[in-house]
Amino acid sequence: MIADDYLKLVAQDIQARASTVLINNTTSVPVLSVTVAGKVVTVRTETVQNVTAITNLKLKTTDGKVIIDKAVNLTMPAAQQQDFTFTIEVKGGTA
Questions:
Q1: pLDDT tens-digit profile of 57-70?
Q2: Record's superkingdom (predicted)?
């Protein structure tokens, strides 16, 4: 089992590195805020507009590495504004 203190360090690492969300592999949206509560990381983006269909969201680090790659199927009017929130719970696995 991975120690709780180490999992909290992983959460802090995500907090320090989360930088942008890439929508449909084309539109980059800056991260507005990242908070950590124990092993839970919450990432919020700035607002984006003029995106009518979303099929993929990628949370990326400052150096372009993908933290989360999420397939979605969303459609909305072009005038609608969106922001995105990722809630990540860092968990240990089994050996």
A1: 999 999 999 999 99
A2: Bacteria
